[in-house]
Protein: ANTAR domain-containing protein
Organism: Mycolicibacterium austroafricanum
Amino acid sequence: MLVEVIARPSHGASAALNLLARSPRAFSAEAEALGAMLATHAAIALSVVNKEQQFESALASRDAIGQAKGILMERFGIDAVGALELLKKLSQDSNTAIPVIAERLISSLHGERSRSSGSARTTRPRRGG
């Protein structure tokens, strides 16, 4: 016997619980109701975890976008609105999400700093020598 319980609570997530038995009518109505409650509980738990992951991702994206805006503002002498508009344009022109563009911009800046600090170290005079 196979009993499949699919739960779709109002949170938008869904979960399925498959109960298998070797004989027909192995599960009582109460067992099936308990299965439905367990499936609903699992769906809600998955929904909460998914929302938490989305929240963490949104925070990280927000920070990266803020850093990228700051870089653009400093480099091009534009305000925050102009920097965001530039990020939007780059996103649309390249069909790339704004957070991805922001991360690339931040990474490129770190690469430039590494190269410039490496060359600065080799050209600095030594003290006491």
The first strand starts at residue 2 and ends at 7. The radius of gyration is 27 Å.
